Every structure is written in structure tokens, then in C-alpha cells.
VTT domain-containing protein
Amino acid sequence: MTAFLLELLNKGGYIGIFLLMAAENIFPPIPSEVIMGGAGVLVARGEMTFWMVWVVATAGTVAGNLFWYWIGVRWSEEQLKAIIDRWGRWLTFEWDEFTKARDIFRKYGDGIVFALRFSPILRTIVSLPAGLAHMKLWHFCLFTFLGSGIWNAILIFGGKALEPLIERFEKFAGYGIAAFVLAGVVFYIYRVVTWKPVKEHEAEDRTQL
């Protein structure tokens, strides 16, 4: 599993890393930790350079989040509600998660886009209220780049630090990566199965009032 992942990243090169990181921010099951960790191993082996990996990965993250920002700019909240009600199950977007991100954004402003880059769930969803609020594009790109840049750097350095252990315990490392990917798939399936339509969230809100 480890050899397959590293070969895949090596063959895909920097363009492949860009595309994977963009997809990771659009389609939930793809784990950035595995992508960046593997890239960090390649950096340690001299097959890639840290700065190139960091730049293309962070640019990919910005590109993926721009997709959701663009949707927020283009559609109203009512239209977004209809989209989440129709496609939210497969994107694992819950309506209450969107409203939570929206309320946080309204309370703390543009800077929260940076802070939520470290939140596993809200880091992508916050792009929607940022678009709805017509946050300045360059502000959105800057805060997204800075926040995701820090996170990506941590993951790359983590993969780089673990490279000696991966060489010594390649079989166990492969099991570890497989387990991580499997956990991501299981979590995705769990989110799909337990997903609630918009109307159920609205009914719950009314009962709490």
C-alpha cells in the first residue's frame, strides 16, 4: 500500500498533487493527510522538493475551496438549501453544519476563514457563507492560502519525519495507510447513512424555540 501510494504520487507529480488537493476540498472522502504525508516521504527521499509540494498543494486547496465560494456567490441561501437537500447526502453536507458555519462567519468576519482551515468539517463549508456574503475574493484567497498553507506544511513535515520509520517498517506503514484510508471511507459511509434532509433540521430548530 505504501509503495503504491508513493508511486502514484511520484507519477502524478506536482500536477497530480494539485488535482488531488483540489478534489479533496470538493469531494469529502479523499484524505489530505494521506496525500500530504506521502508527498512528505517523497520530499525526504529527494524525489520532490518541499517548496514545490507546499505551493502546489496549497494552491490546490484554494482552488477546491473556490468552487464552493463560487457557488455561494452565485446562489442565494434558498437555492443553496435546495442543493444541499438534493445532493447533501453524497457531499455529506448537513444543513445545520452550513448554518453553523454561516453564523460563525457572520459573528467573526473574514478572519474566520483562516481559523476554520484547521477544522475537519467546517473548513470547506465556511467557503459557502463567505461566497454568500460576497467576501472580497482576494481576502478569501489570502486567508484560505495562509490557513491551508500552515496545515499542509505540518503534514508534509510529518511525512518527512516518518520516512525513516516507513523504510524500516514498510509493511506496518502500509497497514497504517490502509487503515487510515479505510477509516475515511467508513466515516464517509456513516455520514451518508446518518445524513438528515433540510426539513428535519428545520423541524428540530422549531422544537427548540
